[in-house]
Automatic annotation (TrEMBL):
Residues 1-52 form the DUF2061 domain. Keywords: Membrane, Transmembrane, Transmembrane helix. This is Uncharacterized membrane protein. The lineage of its organism: Bacteria, Pseudomonadati, Pseudomonadota, Gammaproteobacteria, Pseudomonadales. It comes from Halopseudomonas xinjiangensis. The chain crosses the membrane at residues 12-35.
Length: 71
């Protein structure tokens, strides 16, 4: 969870900086910086869970013994 939180802080800072640099608006920069990273942080959390599941399945399937009969 710490990885997710530090990612959110970094993402918030980048989103705010980019929008503020493009528009000069603190309000718009703050709004985009709150909404966009929040959505991405949730997506990142589920992406990590899915990726971990994929890696676990891949590791489990590679530990199987080779088939007895090969074509």
């Amino acid at each position: 969870m710490t990885k997710t939180i530090t990612f959110a802080v970094m993402h918030f800072s980048i989103a705010f900086g980019v929008v503020y640099a493009m528009t000069g608006s603190l309000l718009l920069g703050g709004a985009v910086a709150l909404i966009e990273p929040a959505v991405n942080t949730v997506a990142f959390y589920f992406h990590e869970k899915a990726w971990k599941r994929f890696e676990t399945r891949r590791n489990n399937s590679s530990s199987l013994p080779p088939p007895i009969f090969q074509a």
